[in-house]
Design brief:
By secondary structure, the chain is an all-alpha fold. It is built from two helices and no strands. Helices cover 66% and strands 0% of the residues.
Length: 87
């Protein structure tokens, strides 16, 4: 992370330029955040559809591995898996 400049040493034009640069950076980050949220929403919807299909077929919703991992997480022995919705 960049250090914040000494504001008293900046001219008005430098201050305006810095505001413009940071505003552009914020807009880029905001755009990327919205794209990521959209992807997450799509992935969650797919997961819900798959779980709904499993439930309708009468399949088990939770595997033994899921129970084991949850037990380890709750016992403080493991962190949630990367990409895990509970992470």
């Amino acid at each position: 992370m960049d250090t914040f400049p000494d504001l008293g040493s900046l001219s008005d034009s430098e201050l305006k330029e810095l505001i413009n640069q940071l505003t552009e950076e914020e807009m880029e980050i905001s755009y990327k955040r919205r794209i990521l949220h959209g992807k997450i929403d799509i992935l969650r919807a797919e997961l819900v559809n798959r779980l709904r299909d499993k439930h309708q077929r009468g399949d088990s919703m939770i595997s033994g591995d899921d129970v084991k991992q949850l037990t380890e997480i709750l016992a403080g022995k493991a962190l949630p898996a990367e990409g895990d919705p509970a992470a």
